[in-house]
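Chapter review: from sequence to fold.
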Amino acid sequence: MTALSFDENGVDVVYQGTDFRLEKSLIEEAIEKEYPDVTDHEVLQIIEDNPSLSGEPRRVGDIIK
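The C-alpha cell string follows.
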C-alpha cells in the first residue's frame, strides 16, 4: 500500500516501507499540470506502475484547502 500526504509544497510518500518526498515542481513537470490541478490518482501513477485506483480522483487543490 502507498500512503500519500499532500501539502502546499509537495507530497510525502510511503511506498513499500520507504519514505520519500515528491516536490511540487517535480510533480508539475512529470504531469504537465499546475500542482493544484493534479489529482491523487495521477501522483499515485508516478509512484506505482499499475496502481489500484479506487474512488473518484481528488484534486490536490481540494485536498490541501
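Two observations follow directly from the output. The chain is about 30% helix and 30% strand. Residues 2-63 form one domain.
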